DNA sequence: AGGTAAGCGAGACGGTACGTCGTGTCTTTTG
DNA sequence: CAAAAGACACGACGTACCGTCTCGCTTACCT
């Protein structure tokens, strides 16, 4: 996030306080996680206060609020991972289970506000900042993609399968539904898995 | 958006001005479309000024900025539709074409800021407002869903296919990519179509 | 205030409501008296609501808020009289008593807010409206003036005494002190009476 | 106005900008004096704009509009002093002259709107704010009081005369008249002086 | 060892927009 | 046809944050 290319160029003056840096990221994560704070309600002043840090210290190191959130995300202060895909040997059943689990978790109250925080951050930041593209990895490089790759190697799936794309076909619709507050029916979600596995065409 | 339950309950006092109502929606669309205005830069005061309307009139009828934008969207003042799916008889080729077209359009500058406007509005609003679920229709009831239904009726697709779900498997990943500013590679997008049609499994 | 000369001229349509007129004045007095409402906090909307009357009905008959208050004052809906001057035969003692009483009353909480309401109204109105000069009568034609006139007729005071002016010399300083929230010392107030009776010059 | 208790308590953070402080007072005086602005028409937003200052800066230091005006008054940014009392040796003639001058000045248009500004400020503020009692000094510590004190020391007036009280007996009625827009007759005003000097009683 | 160049918490600064409130006008239905 | 109800355009209110700017420190390198 912050350009840290100290090419032997020893900086003069007081060095950056690592403590302040961490405090900011931790405060950000704390506010988004525990509080009932949406991303939009998150303020730089609020972060500074929570972190016990001067506002200027934040502006010195991050160009905008979204950058703070993104760094909190990428450094793991803010966790937003999907559940693991179980492995019973039956891919279809495993993915159905994963989809159900994911929806269960997603529509748990605490999680949802955090998830929306993430996506709001993503959007607000991504609109103007190239670095934010990384966020798509969250669903495109999800455990689902790993499993699909693994099954492909085992020869159970098409050899030319684009695992990332196929994972996105399952996870992206779920993410968008998660954001719009309407929990989809299980059948709809299972159909996503079935379509991705079997295709729409008659076999 | 506005409760229109005309239970013969004749309202007293001056009736709501349809002109003001329309002026607000039109002004909103005008600002987002023609101007170089992002959703975040759109202000209630700005809408009121552009519409020649009192600020209070907006707050009287819409709880938040996002609701105004949503209504502008749903009433067609703000157009954000997907392209039509061409019909050459070859479903796969048609969908590939549609995907390419959609990405071309989406990564046109003017369109993108408007599209992000939509989704930001959606998110800010959807988090707390049940009415906003309607926004999912934009991609789940897209022309792709219609085409899939039509092909299913013609017997070219599985009879038990959930067309909405399958359309989402194609459109949702595109929407999310659109929001995160990184244009996906054509191969990735085509793979979405192929997975949806043929499935991941070996046939 | 309002021309109410319905000279047998049978008007068509719904007759003007005397009840509404009275209700407005009564509501005004009620709000200023009982409530903890200052004049500035008094609103036309508030009066209309309290009176169960349309806002327009008020604007139809009075040009401004101050005019309503003034009429309430002049018609006695709003009482703001000074205490009577006792008559023990000793003018000086009587005026000292009156001054003490007036201050006691004035610095009673309920009274003060009403009195300030009056004066605020007076000022707001008087600045732009000739009719408001009448308000000066409250202190210049106070019971003190009457008593001075009476004593002058009895030959106890100078025959050429301007009773109104002399009464003002006593009452006006009290009124201004009342408005500025600092209760004057009794000695200062008694000195007002003594100066007015004996003059500043050595005798 | 602002608590200036410099208890060696070194304040942290950026110190208050004296420039902004002065700019606000100057702008207030400028608007009330030069403009055709009544006190009621004076807005905090207007002051901020005229002063080139953020609105919050005003609210940070003054609780209400009236307090700004009062401070402008007390610091001399806004001049509202009475004329000097001439000194020809003849006290009565001098006071008559002063009264006439004061009324002439008071009923000059420019002055009056400013004067009402003062009193409106006074009232709105004084009702709830102890600090506003200072305003009474404007008429009770007027040049008249000084002159009376001086004459008392010279033995021309009663040794026990309360000069402040006697000055109030002359000035307060004038102030109230000034506020209620009716210019009193000269005779009435002269009678005030005569009563204050000679008393009402027959000598 | 002292000088000096940052960084630090704090918080005031000029701004912009917020969402609310009150004004005085207007347009309905009701009596 | 006036009165009630209440929506309307307008504009000020007081608040919340923005991103910038002093302050008086503290820290750690560099003479």
Automatic annotation (TrEMBL), chains A, B, C, D:
SUPFAM superfamilies with a match to the protein in the record: Homeodomain-like, Tetracyclin repressor-like, C-terminal domain
Segments of the chain annotated as binding DNA: 43-62
Keywords of the record: DNA-binding, Transcription, Transcription regulation
Source organism, top-level taxon: Bacteria
InterPro entries, alphabetized: Homeodomain-like_sf (IPR009057), HTH-type_TetR-like_transc_reg (IPR050109), HTH_TetR (IPR001647), Tet_transcr_reg_TetR-rel_C_sf (IPR036271), TetR_C (IPR011075)
Gene3D superfamilies, sorted: Homeodomain-like, Tetracycline Repressor, domain 2
Pfam name, any one: TetR_N
Matches recorded under PROSITE patterns: HTH_TETR_2 (PS50977)
Annotated ranges, domain HTH tetR-type: 18-80
Alphabetized GO MF terms: DNA-binding transcription factor activity; transcription cis-regulatory region binding
PANTHER family: HTH-TYPE TRANSCRIPTIONAL REGULATOR RUTR, TETR-FAMILY TRANSCRIPTIONAL REGULATOR
Name of the protein this chain belongs to: AcrR family transcriptional regulator
Organism: Nesterenkonia xinjiangensis
């Amino acid at each position: 996030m912050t350009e840290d290319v100290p090419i032997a160029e020893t900086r003069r003056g007081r060095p950056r306080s690592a403590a302040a840096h961490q405090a900011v990221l931790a405060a950000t994560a704390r506010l988004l996680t525990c509080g009932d704070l949406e991303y939009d309600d998150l303020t730089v002043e609020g972060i500074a206060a929570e972190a016990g840090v001067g506002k200027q210290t934040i502006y010195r190191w991050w160009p905008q609020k979204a950058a703070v959130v993104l760094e909190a995300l990428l450094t793991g202060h803010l966790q937003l991972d999907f559940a693991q895909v179980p492995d019973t040997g039956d891919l279809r059943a495993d993915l159905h289970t994963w989809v159900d689990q994911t929806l269960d978790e997603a529509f748990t109250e605490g999680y949802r506000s955090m998830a929306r925080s993430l996506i709001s951050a993503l959007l607000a930041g991504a609109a103007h900042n190239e670095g934010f593209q990384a966020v798509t990895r969250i669903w495109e490089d999800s455990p689902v993609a790993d499993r699909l790759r693994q099954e492909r190697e085992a020869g159970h799936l098409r050899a030319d399968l684009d695992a990332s794309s196929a994972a996105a076909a399952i996870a992206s619709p779920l993410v968008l539904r998660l954001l719009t507050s309407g929990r989809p029916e299980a059948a709809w979600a299972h159909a996503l898995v079935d379509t991705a596995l079997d295709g729409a065409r008659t076999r």
